[in-house]
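Appendix B. Raw example, untouched.
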Amino acid sequence: MSRAGWHCVRVVSPARPAPDATREDPPVPVAPPRRRPGVLAALLGLVVLACAVAFPFAPVVQPEARYDWGGPGAVPTALPLMPYQPVSLTATTTCDAARALGEGTLLATTPAAPDPRATPLDGLRMEVAAGSLRVTTAGVDLDPLPLPAGGCTVEFRSDTTATTLLLNGAPVVSRPGDLRPAVAAALTDAPDTSGLRLQLTADTRFQTSITPLKAAIAVVGVLALVAMVVVLARGERRRAVRVLPRRWWRPRLPDLAVTAVLAVWWVSGPVTVDDGYIAGIVRDRGSSGFVGNVYRWLNAPEAPFSWFYDLYHAWSQVSASTVWMRLPSILLGLVTWGLLSRCVVPRLLPRAGRGVAWLSALTFLAWWLPYTLGLRPEPWVAVGTVLAFVGVERAITLRRVTPLVLALLVAGVTTAVTPGGLMAFAPVVAGLVPVLRTLRRSGLGPVPLVLVLLAGPAAAVFLMVSDQSLAAMLEATRVRTLIGGGQPWYDEYDRYALLLTQDDMQGSLGKRAPVLLTLLAAVAALWAAGRRFPPGPTRRIAVVFLLGLASMTATPTKWTQHFGDLAGIGAAVLLVGIVAVGRRALARRTAPWLAGLGALAVVGSLVLAAQNVWPFVSDWWGLTWSTLPPFVAGVELAPVWLVAGLVLVAGALLVLAWRRSGGGTGRLPRWLPSPAAVTTVLLTAVVLLQVGSFARTGWQHRDSYTLLSDAVSTARGAPCGLQERLSVETDPAAGLLPALPGPSALPPEPVDAGGTELPGIRVLGTGDTAWFALDTTQRSRELPVVVTVAGALRPGDTLAAEFAGDDGEPLERAALKPDGQVPQDVRLLAPDGATRVRLAVDVREPADTPAVVTLPRVPRLTPMDEVLPAGTEAILDWPVAFVFPCLTPAPLPLGTTVLPQWRVAPPQRDDSAGITYAPSYGGPFAAARTLVIEQRMATYLAGDPTRDAAQVYRWVPVRPLASATPQVSEHTVGGWTHTGRTRVPGLDPVG
């Protein structure tokens, strides 16, 4: 064994005689700590616990935003609240103002006729009709109030407890309960607004900041924690123990290989499905004043699982480019690899040679590549779980309490990242018996032990609610639970069903391989414990992996992406399992050898039956075997692998039976590969496929948009991502193709092309339109022919575009298939030699929603960075927010949202961004959406003009609207203070 390897073992175990793989580490004689340090550590632990309990209840600074509208010259004003209801609202009018209006809307907080595609909100509406004032709030009609003769004042008051209508200060209608109206604007039809006034206080319960007292509690708690650890360590110190091995920093060849692969993956690897979601949350941190969910859940804070978002926010202040924002996950990968290679692997395989070092690099990459690149929390959990395992193993080996306290601290901090971080406590559970043995021999009494052990994880509270109050966190949890979006623990099987789904990115080839193979490896590791392997660490790490899988039932969503939490531990278990079924380890063990090959035949075929598919921009260019499982020479590998594996096992059984029938030894034939060799080949192929396919695709399409071209552009000083490679069709009418002389059998009809009306036809009857001359860019196939379709067709009916040359003889016919009322663009490249195009219809009877189609056009394009220059404020929908780093996310300040001019959205057929504008999902921009009409502007990707990469929408207010300016003051409120509940339309009861 090398000198460096021996010192690596010393990280988690002291020097001892040659190890015996059949027993646990021999006890290390350690004198119990002196009584005084133990008592002092217990007192410090008590201080930590007291501070952790007091911290959520500590006061916070909450801004109060008051809006005052009305009086002479008041004009309709946008005021989209978030949450939708104010804390309290008062509306006042005079009878003279009501009578001057005659009939109509005296005051409203939501538009009466919003865009039909927007979901309306129930606001306040005060209408004058037949000499009476009719008031509706939150969808509830109050009793009509006849307007008395002469001067009078009508006042409407609503808060979380009651709603009252007063005439000259006397209540005439009173309703208990919460009937607060939603507020999107202050609107009126009154010609004279001098008698109108609207006053409200926005709900800013989440937009709090830390007070000096709350900060002081945290400082005292952290200092007490540090002092406690120091006192414990000094009390247990009897001789020096090296924390890291000598020359741990010296790179080795496997280190260089891992670093090189991670570097390639950093600049070319895929995005995760949530990178845009998290990018929007992180980048909005500055405008909201807290880490809130800017896409749903009423922008409720992510607390108590949000501290790493604050780190990402600080990181994004340097640059929001994709390559910069993905760097932390790569750095965390290098940290995890360092812990595995320097600490964990020597603990599990103390006699490992150089081959094991390369094999550990392979298992690490197999786990890390598909699950942990990007902004999601999985790499943080992976690092935390490995650190906790190292701490527990050190505590067991050295018989010391201090490493255990540090492991519990790391586990608590990891849990504060995401609910999946709960698995960081698994090493403590897996090593419970030797841990308890260590605690019994520590010399500390039961009470001091409890105090110091609880202090570590309790300190995570300082990260969980750093700027939130307890009441706000509980209300945010209630809102998330009410709206939903998660699944109960007993639906955990859905995660594995998704992993095995054939055509789903969650069951991609890269994601299946590490999970399925590590499940087999965990069985092999448990079987091999004590056979050439240290039994305690081997069993414990396998149990940690299995407990980690079990703890994932606590995560509210069941995405396969969460398997990345186990990337570090899983890589170690996979390594041990492979070594355990190697040729040397399985010598003369026939049954395990054949059982391993049989299991690998089945599992390997499941892996190879998957596709190499990834989310959004990462799957644009048809990665190797992306739409089909891997195949060679037209033959799928999955069934070949299964048949070949079963034939090998059957052949080996026949050879064994033949030899034993002749009185032979019954040894396995030499030509039979070991399960370790088969697993290594499969893992190598999976890793090479992933890295190679993205590197190849990035190089082949470097003139268009890939993550690799984005990284290269950023290095050249152009960090704006997809925006730099898109052009926008700002005016669809500008590109209508000229009609050639000739008749048209179909009458014209205007068609909505997404906020712009274009000439078109209703798809009814049988016939053709006139021919239209193709543009030169369409003849050269630089740009497509574009039509916009909507509606539906009955089975057997046809709508098609026909291309022809100068002689009018059709060259190609392309079917057009509308599939809904939302207008959809269809882009067609003209065949070679085509100079004209027309529409052909054969529809005998219209469907329930008759189809319509615009006349053909050529897109007239403007570079997107000219339409929306860098720094332009826009709503960045969550599927695309990550790849538009130069646009400024529309802010959500002080209990409101702005009314932006632009929205950048995913491709038309992706409706997942709709949650942001849906009140039932708590969409933050639902109120603002009711005030505008969307005008769609299609985008065109350089190098692939037929691809729908993203959409740009201009938000045009339904009527001219001014902006509201609040009067802001700050107040200190207790951590338990709340002002009623926020109400989710359709889910929370009214009243």
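End of appendix B.
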